Amino acid sequence: MDFDDTPEEAEYRAGVRRALEQHAAELLHVSAGEEAVDAATAEAELRRTQRVLYETGLVGVTWPREHGGQGGTLVQQAIVQQELARARVPTLINHIGLGMCGPTVIAHGSDDQRQRYLTRLLRADDVWCQLFSEPASGSDLAALRTTAVRDGDDWVVNGQKVWTTLAHVADRGILLTRTDPGKPKHAGLTMFVVDMHAPGVTVRPLRQMIGSAGFNEVFFDDVRIPDGERLGEPGEGWRVALTTLMNERVAIGGAGSDLGIPVEALVAHARQRLPQLDHDRQVLARQALGRAVVASLATRYTGYRRFSELGRGGVPGAEASAGKLAGTAAAKLVADAGVRLLGDDAVYAATAEGDETWQRSQGFLPGLAIAGGTDQVLRNILGERVLGLPPEPRADKTAPFSGGAR
Amino acid sequence: MNFDLGPDQRDAAAGARDFYRGSASPSAARAALEGGDVAPGRKALADIGFLGITVPESAGGAGGSLLDLAVVAEQGGAVLAGPSLATAARAAVLLAEAPDLAARLADGSAAFAVLDGPVTGSSPSMDAAGATLFLGLDDGALVLGEGGATPGRPLDATRGLASVRLTSRRVLADDAAQLWARAQQVATVVLAAEDLGAADAAVRMAVGYAQQREAFGRRIGSYQAVKHMLVDAWVGVDQLRSLVWWAAWAADAAPDELPLAASAAKALAAEVLERAAETCIQVHGGIGFTWEHDAHLYWRRAKVDRLLLGDAAEHLDAVARLAVAGALG
C-alpha cells in the first residue's frame, strides 16, 4: 500500500508537467479560488487552450489512436486532469464532447461521421453538447417527448430540451428523440447528431437559483436533420444513450477529487475565523469543522481506492455512484461549516468585504444533488447493482408510450 | 498509487475470517451476556498468533504492521469476537521497551489490559475483566501492576469492561505521555477496524433479509424506503474502510498523519456502526428486536464501542484542532 506514483506514472506525470510549463504562455489560467470560467465570455481563449493541449497530446488521452486519441489509460487521464488542475488550467471547453459525445460517436457513428467530427471535437474546432433532459423527463430520461419524424432523406425535429450545458456556445450536439410513440418508451427512441447552428434551433440561457446561468434551454422548431446524421439504427436510441451515460459516470465518478470547495480551503478559513468566536461558539464550530473534514477525507480516500482499482485495469462500476453521493454530502458539510464561520455575514449573499465564496458554494450544492443523477437515483443504482436488491415493479416498460404509460 | 491491500494481507484476512468464523459468533456474544465465556478468548487468540501480530519478532511476535493487524481485527469484528485486538495492539506499543513482557503478551502467558483514567480507580476499561496485569498512566509515568477489577452489568459482554484499582504497581517508563498517546491512537484504529467488520456484517445481514422477506406482495428490498436506508448504511461502511486503511497505514508509514487519521476513523466508525446496527434491526422488523435474533448483538457492540477510547464528539474536535494546526498540510 502506498500513495505514490509507480515509476511509469511518475514519468508520465513529469512529462505532462513539462508540457504544461513549456506551453504556459499559450494556455488560459484561472486564479486561485476561481471555480469556473464562463464559456461565453472566454470562448476564444478556451478553444485555443484545448487546441494547444490537443497538439501537445493531452486531449483524448483514453481515446483510441485511430480516432485521434492517445490510446492511453484511465490512470493517465486522471494524471492529466490532476496536472491541469495543479497548473490552474480551467476545465476544457469541450469536456462534454470529450467525455460523452465523442465516445458515443466512436461507438455508434458511421465511418463518415467519425471522420468528419472526431478530430474537430478534439481540437475544439467544434464544441459539443448533450441534448437529453427535457422539462418532463429528468431522471426518467426515456419519457422524453421531443419528436423526430421522417420526411424524405431528412428527419424533422420538434420539442424542447433543458439543462443543456454549453448549448450557448456549442456547434454540435447529440440529440435523443422519440421516433415511434407507438412503441414502449425505451424502444421508440433514436439518436442524432444535430447542427446547433441549423435553422429552427433556439438556445436560451437558464438562470439558476444562485443567479447565474450555466445551463440552457434549447428549442427545436421544424429542425431538419439529414438521415446520415443518425447515430445507430432507428429505435436503438436508448442503447446509444446508455453508452453516453456510462461514459458520464466515468467522467463524474472522479478519483479522489473534491466536489465543491476543497476541505483545505475550509481549514484555512477556519484558522482565520475561529479565534474571532467566543469560547462556546468555537466548540460548536469545531464540531462542524471536524464533521466536514472527516466526510471529505472519507470520500477522498475512497476515491483513491477506486483510482487504485483503475490502475490495476479495473473498469469503473456502479460503485462510482457512491463517490458522487457521498461527495455531495461532504461538500454540503464543507459549505455549511464555511458559511457558519462567517458569523453575522452568514445571513447575507456575500461578506461585508464582498466575498461570496461560501455563500455561492452553499447555493450551488442543491443543484449538485440533482444534476448528473439525483441522490435518489444514485441510491437506486447502488441498491440494485451493488447490493443486489430487487428493482421496483414498473408499469411503464412494456406499454406503448402513446398509450399514456409514461 | 496503490491504495489497496497486498496479496499477503488478503491471505491473512481470509485466514482470519476462517479462524474467527470457527471460534466466535453472535451466538457466543449472546451466551456471554448470559454468563458464558467471551469467544474465542485470550488463549485461542494467543495460540493463533493474533495477540502478537505487532510485537517484534525478537520478542516472539510476528513483527507485522498495524495494517496487518487491522485486516485481522476487521474479521474479528464481523463475528463480535473478544478480547479486542485493540487491547493487544495498545499493549504492544506500551511494551516496546520491555521485550520480556511483550513476549508474555504475544504468547498469552499474561493477560494484559490497559486502563483508561486513574490507576487508583479506572474508568471502565476494555478486556479488564479476566486480565491479570494492567498497564496504566500514573502521573505521566507508565506503570504495570496487579489489581482488582469490578465489572458492571454488561451491555456488550464481549468487551470485558471493568473498573480497576491497582493493588501493586511498578514504573516501566517515566515521561511516557507521548508513548501513551501513540498507544491510544493505535488502539483507536484497531477498534475502528473491528467496528468496520461489525458494520459490514450487520449491513450484509440486513441486505440478505431484504432480498427475501416479502410484504405487500413483493420483496421489501424493492421499496425505495428500505433500499435507500440500506444503501446509506453500505456507503458508510465503504467510506469507513478507506479511513481505517489509511489510518492503519499511517501508523507505520506516515506517523505524522496518524493522530488525525485515527480520530477521523474512530469518529466515522462510531456513526457508521450505529447506523448499520440500527438499520439492521429496522429492516428486520419484529424479529429484529427479539433476544434470539443476532441484530441486537451488533447494536450492543455499536452502543458500547461508540463511547470507548473517545466518543465521536471528542474525535471530531481532535480532527478540527489538528487540521487547524496544520495536520492536513
From TrEMBL, chain A:
Question: Ranges for the Acyl-CoA oxidase/dehydrogenase middle domain?
Answer: 129-223
Task: Name the InterPro entries on file.
Answer: Acyl-CoA_Oxase/DH_mid-dom, Acyl-CoA_Oxase/DH_mid-dom_sf, AcylCo_DH-like_C, AcylCo_DH/oxidase_C, AcylCoA_DH/ox_N, AcylCoA_DH/ox_N_sf, AcylCoA_DH/oxidase_NM_dom_sf, Mycobact_Acyl-CoA_DH
* Cofactor(s) essential for the protein: FAD
Q: Please give the Gene Ontology molecular function terms for this protein.
A: flavin adenine dinucleotide binding; oxidoreductase activity, acting on the CH-CH group of donors
Which residue ranges does the record assign to the Acyl-CoA dehydrogenase/oxidase C-terminal domain?
235-387
Looking up Pfam families in the UniProt record yields: Acyl-CoA_dh_1, Acyl-CoA_dh_M, Acyl-CoA_dh_N
Give UniProt keywords alphabetically: FAD, Flavoprotein, Oxidoreductase
Q: Name one GO cellular component term.
A: plasma membrane
Give the protein name, as stated in the record. Answer: Acyl-CoA dehydrogenase
The organism's superkingdom is given as Bacteria
Give the family, as the similarity comment puts it: Belongs to the acyl-CoA dehydrogenase family.
- Taking every annotated instance into account, which residue ranges of this chain make up the domain Acyl-CoA dehydrogenase/oxidase N-terminal? 6-123
Species source reads: Geodermatophilus poikilotrophus
UniProtKB/TrEMBL annotation, chain B:
Q: Acyl-CoA dehydrogenase/oxidase C-terminal domain location, by residue?
A: 189-321
- Kindly name one Pfam family recorded for this protein: Acyl-CoA_dh_N
User: Could you cite one Gene Ontology molecular function of this protein?
Assistant: flavin adenine dinucleotide binding
Spell out the SUPFAM superfamilies in the cross-references.
Answer: Acyl-CoA dehydrogenase C-terminal domain-like, Acyl-CoA dehydrogenase NM domain-like
InterPro entries from the UniProt entry: AcylCo_DH-like_C, AcylCo_DH/oxidase_C, AcylCoA_DH/ox_N, AcylCoA_DH/ox_N_sf, AcylCoA_DH/oxidase_NM_dom_sf
Q: Which cofactor does it need?
A: FAD
Could you tell me which residue ranges the Acyl-CoA dehydrogenase/oxidase N-terminal domain spans? 7-89
Q: Keywords of this protein's UniProt record, alphabetized?
A: FAD, Flavoprotein, Oxidoreductase
- The reply to whether Oxidoreductase figures as a keyword in the UniProt entry is yes
**PANTHER family given in the database record:** ACYL-COA DEHYDROGENASE (PTHR43884), ACYL-COA DEHYDROGENASE FADE28 (PTHR43884:SF20)
Family, per entry:
Belongs to the acyl-CoA dehydrogenase family.
Q: What is this protein called?
A: Acyl-CoA dehydrogenase
The species is Geodermatophilus poikilotrophus
